[in-house]
Automatic annotation (TrEMBL):
<comment type="similarity">
    <text>Belongs to the glycosyltransferase 2 family.</text>
</comment>
<keyword id="KW-0472">Membrane</keyword>
<dbReference type="InterPro" id="IPR001173">
    <property type="entry name" value="Glyco_trans_2-like"/>
</dbReference>
<keyword id="KW-1133">Transmembrane helix</keyword>
<comment type="pathway">
    <text>Protein modification; protein glycosylation.</text>
</comment>
<keyword id="KW-0812">Transmembrane</keyword>
<keyword id="KW-0256">Endoplasmic reticulum</keyword>
<dbReference type="InterPro" id="IPR035518">
    <property type="entry name" value="DPG_synthase"/>
</dbReference>
<dbReference type="GO" id="GO:0006487">
    <property type="term" value="P:protein N-linked glycosylation"/>
</dbReference>
<dbReference type="GO" id="GO:0004581">
    <property type="term" value="F:dolichyl-phosphate beta-glucosyltransferase activity"/>
</dbReference>
<dbReference type="Pfam" id="PF00535">
    <property type="entry name" value="Glycos_transf_2"/>
</dbReference>
<dbReference type="InterPro" id="IPR029044">
    <property type="entry name" value="Nucleotide-diphossugar_trans"/>
</dbReference>
<feature type="domain" description="Glycosyltransferase 2-like">
    <location>
        <begin position="65"/>
        <end position="176"/>
    </location>
</feature>
<dbReference type="GO" id="GO:0005789">
    <property type="term" value="C:endoplasmic reticulum membrane"/>
</dbReference>
<keyword id="KW-0735">Signal-anchor</keyword>
<keyword id="KW-0328">Glycosyltransferase</keyword>
<protein>
    <recommendedName>
        <fullName>dolichyl-phosphate beta-glucosyltransferase</fullName>
        <ecNumber>2.4.1.117</ecNumber>
    </recommendedName>
</protein>
Length: 334
């Protein structure tokens, strides 16, 4: 009997902890939406900072924004960023209507990440490469949220700082989004032709890069306990967000401006499982989700380990309690 009571007390304690965290986060988010969030762009070529960042509610000024969250990425960022800039500049030289920006969000790095980012700002100008410092580490999800909320693109792509996914694969996501957006636009406004001009940023669509096609090979090479833990995590994700996306954790996702505005003004989770919350919110808002296979390779230096899984499960528990109890409010912003 004592054992049963001890387990019951432990379960109650965990529930109280989850409840208190959910309440705290709900309070913080409710008050943070009272005023428009501000962030600072740092420009190493100027004596003063660019104080006001663009807002996601502003009209788009670029065609494509790339948001790169970076935490202690001094070693991996240079090559990945150079490959990205080579692609973007090459595309811009071939297509004069193509415009872009790269937004590097420094998530409280303590190495030379900011120095590396500033080198690219000096090389490519602050109009094309921007650095948003968060001051202290807040988590990958929060870094991406800040980058999304202060970007200027019609299309917004999040991608990891390690270059694990080939940047050229963004065209796969872009083309699928364009096709679905045209279809959605023609349904919304039947009087216009499917091939007529429209602003892609005004239609809510998102595309998730996926490594699911690589899973069979990964299962064959991973240790049995790693497969067991990953399968368990996938089951928890299924219970928390439902089916629809096989690979929620790939760091290569594209959103139209309208979709990003609705999703990232509502997201709560700050670290690894924000991707799962994105899937949950897409379903809540009926935003079309596309899952598209991308080329992916393992890059040494990953910050995700099997020890991250308990933290992920904890975040999913917070999300489930927060939305089910109604403490995490949803802003129905179009």
């Amino acid at each position: 009997m004592e054992f049963v009571l001890t387990v019951a007390e432990l379960g109650l304690t965990l529930l109280l902890i989850v409840f208190s965290v959910v309440v705290s986060e709900a309070w913080r988010r409710r008050h943070s939406h009272v005023s428009v969030e501000t962030a600072t762009i740092e420009d190493p070529t100027s004596l003063k900072q660019v104080v006001r960042c663009p807002q996601i509610s502003d009209p788009a000024e670029k065609y494509l924004s790339l948001i790169v969250p970076a935490f202690n990425e001094e070693q991996r960022l240079p090559s990945a960023l150079q490959e990205t800039m080579d692609y973007l500049q090459g595309r811009a030289s071939r297509d004069k209507s193509f415009s872009y920006e790269v937004v590097i969000v420094d998530d409280g790095s303590v190495d030379g990440t900011k120095r590396v980012a500033f080198d690219f700002v000096r090389k490519y100008t602050v109009d094309n490469v921007r650095v948003i410092p968060l001051g202290k580490n807040q988590g990958k999800g929060e870094a991406i949220r800040k980058g999304m909320l202060h970007s200027r693109g019609e299309l917004l792509l999040m991608l990891d700082a390690d270059g694990a996914t080939k940047v050229t694969d963004l065209e796969k996501l872009e083309n699928q989004i364009l096709a679905v957006a045209r279809e959605e636009h023609s349904i919304r406004d039947p009087t216009t032709s499917k091939h007529s001009d429209f602003r892609i940023g005004d239609v809510q669509v998102c595309a998730f890069g996926s490594r699911a096609h690589l899973e069979e090979k990964a299962i064959a090479t991973r240790k049995w306990y790693r497969n067991f833990l990953m399968k368990g995590f996938h089951l928890v994700v299924l219970l928390a967000a439902g089916s629809g996306i096989r690979d929620t954790q790939c760091g290569f996702k594209m959103f139209t401006r309208a979709a990003a505005r609705r999703l990232f003004t509502n997201i709560h989770l700050k670290r690894w499982c924000f991707d799962v919350e994105l899937v949950f919110l897409c379903k809540r808002f009926n935003i079309p989700m596309l899952e598209i296979s991308v080329k992916w390779s393992e890059i040494p230096g990953s910050k995700v380990s099997m020890l991250s899984i308990p933290n992920m499960v904890w975040e999913l528990a917070l999300m489930s309690v927060g939305y089910r109890t109604g403490m995490w409010k949803i802003i129905h912003q179009a």
